[in-house]
């Protein structure tokens, strides 16, 4: 449940950090009539995610047990790589919860642009939430659903507080904490993925994979954090 909660919180928060400032900006510049395109983009993104998930689940059920293990192991390794990409290799420029961010961006306020931005944001983040939770859903569906709901609720509460208080809160510490947790989640996924692909090696492969993933990733994260502090 903790894994699902943390991942959902992070992805849903990133989703809100794109959508909410746009809605606030449109209201501020007296263009509330464009908000419906953002809402429709969000709805379409969720619908597209559901369709993709149904397709994936349908294909998984047709696989034999051995192939399912290979698929699950490969998926876990892919997701651990995705975590690595998100938390280490990407330059995260979201250092503040800034509801005025769209004013600093060159945004063409057109129906299509707003719809497309909302659709891509919601579809990408929602699909990542589903993919991260998919390997564990068949094992413990209830805890995954509960963790996902708590993650969505937690992210919504954070954005609600920011919206109501009109604060410009530094998000660096929050994202750093989440990053550390995700590193260990990624290590667990990588190790378990290797054990699924090579079950004859047992727990030793899982532990080796976790160490191979977590140690260099932590070193890269610490190095990156130190560079940021030095620049300040």
TrEMBL record:
| Entry keyword set | Membrane, Transmembrane, Transmembrane helix
Q: What is its main location?
A: membrane
Where does it live in the cell? Membrane
- Its domain of life? Bacteria
Q: Which segment of the chain is annotated as a signal peptide? A: none
Enumerate the GO terms in the molecular function aspect: ferrous iron transmembrane transporter activity
Q: Which regions span the lipid bilayer?
A: 6-26, 38-58, 70-90, 111-132, 138-162, 169-190, 210-226
Q: Which InterPro entries match?
A: FTR1/Fip1/EfeU
Q: How does it sit in the membrane?
A: Multi-pass membrane protein
Example GO CC term: the record gives: high-affinity iron permease complex
Q: What's this protein's family per the entry? A: Belongs to the oxidase-dependent Fe transporter (OFeT) (TC 9.A.10.1) family.
Q: What is this protein called?
A: High-affinity iron transporter
Q: Native species of this protein?
A: Clostridium polyendosporum
The lineage is: Bacteria, Bacillati, Bacillota, Clostridia, Eubacteriales
């Amino acid at each position: 449940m903790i894994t699902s909660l943390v991942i959902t919180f992070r992805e849903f928060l990133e989703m809100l950090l794109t959508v909410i400032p746009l809605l606030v900006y449109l209201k501020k510049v007296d263009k509330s009539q464009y908000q419906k395109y953002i809402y429709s983009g969000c709805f379409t993104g969720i619908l597209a995610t559901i369709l993709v998930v149904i397709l994936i689940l349908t294909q998984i059920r047709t696989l034999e047990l051995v192939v399912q293990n290979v698929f699950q192991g490969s998926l876990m390794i892919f997701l651990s790589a995705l975590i690595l990409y998100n938390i280490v290799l990407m330059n995260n420029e979201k250092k503040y919860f800034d509801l005025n961010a769209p004013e600093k961006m060159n945004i063409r306020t057109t129906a299509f642009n707003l719809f497309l931005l909302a659709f891509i944001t919601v579809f990408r983040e929602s699909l990542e939430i589903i993919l991260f939770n998919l390997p564990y859903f068949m094992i413990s569906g209830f805890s995954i659903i509960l963790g996902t709901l708590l993650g969505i609720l937690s992210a919504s509460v954070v954005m609600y507080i920011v919206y109501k208080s009109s604060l410009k809160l530094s998000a660096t510490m929050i994202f750093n904490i989440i990053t550390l947790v995700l590193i260990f989640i990624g290590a667990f996924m990588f190790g378990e993925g290797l054990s699924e692909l090579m079950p004859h090696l047992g727990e030793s492969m899982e532990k080796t994979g976790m160490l191979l993933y977590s140690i260099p990733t932590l070193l890269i994260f610490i190095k990156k954090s130190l560079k940021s502090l030095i620049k300040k």
